[in-house]
Amino acid sequence: MFSLEGGGKVGTVQSVITSGRGLNADEIADMAVNKLLHVADTAPPAIREQAIAFKDRMRVVVKHYVEQAQRSERTTLYNVLNQAGQHDAAEIVRKL
C-alpha cells in the first residue's frame, strides 16, 4: 500500500504563441530566465534592484548561448545536406 499526502502551489503558467515561425532567441531566453529566477515584489528595495540587475545579465548570457546553439544547428544542417548532395537546400540553410 502506498499513500501520499501533501499540498502545494501551482506556479504561474505562461504560454508563448507565434505565427509562421518558431521561437526566437529573445523569447527562449525570457522563458529560461523566468524559470530560473523570480524576483519577489515583497523583497527589500536594495535586494530587489540587485536581483533584477542579475536577472537582466542572466538573460543576456542565456540569449548569447541560445543564438550560438542556433548557429551551430544551422551549420550541422548545412553539412548534412551538402553531404547528401542537396547543395541547393544547404545554401538556403546557410543564408538563414
Can you offer a commentary on this structure?
- The structure is a single chain.
- This protein has 96 residues and is mainly α.
- It has one domain (25-94).
- Helices cover 61% and strands 0% of the residues.
- It is built from three helices and no strands.
- The protein has helices at residues 25-36, 45-83, 87-94.
- Helix 2 runs antiparallel to helix 3.
Short summary:
With 96 residues, this protein is mainly alpha-helical. Helix content is 61%, strand content 0%. The protein has one domain (25-94).
Question: SSE layout and pairings?
Answer:
Elements: H1 25-36, H2 45-83, H3 87-94
Helix pairs in contact: 1-2, 2-3
What would the principal axes of the Cα set say about the shape? Answer: elongated
Q: What class would the helix/strand composition place it in?
A: mainly alpha
Q: In percent, how helical is the residue content?
A: 55-70%
Through-space gap between termini:
57 Å
User: Main β-sheet: number of strands, strand sense, barrel status?
Assistant: none
Radius of gyration: 21 Å
Total strand count, please?
Answer: 0
Which stretches are poorly predicted, pLDDT < 50 over at least 5 residues?
none
Oligomer: single chain
Average pLDDT number: 90
Number of helices, counting only DSSP H or I runs of 4 residues or more: 3
Strand content: under 5%
**SSE series:** HHH
Total domains, how many?
1
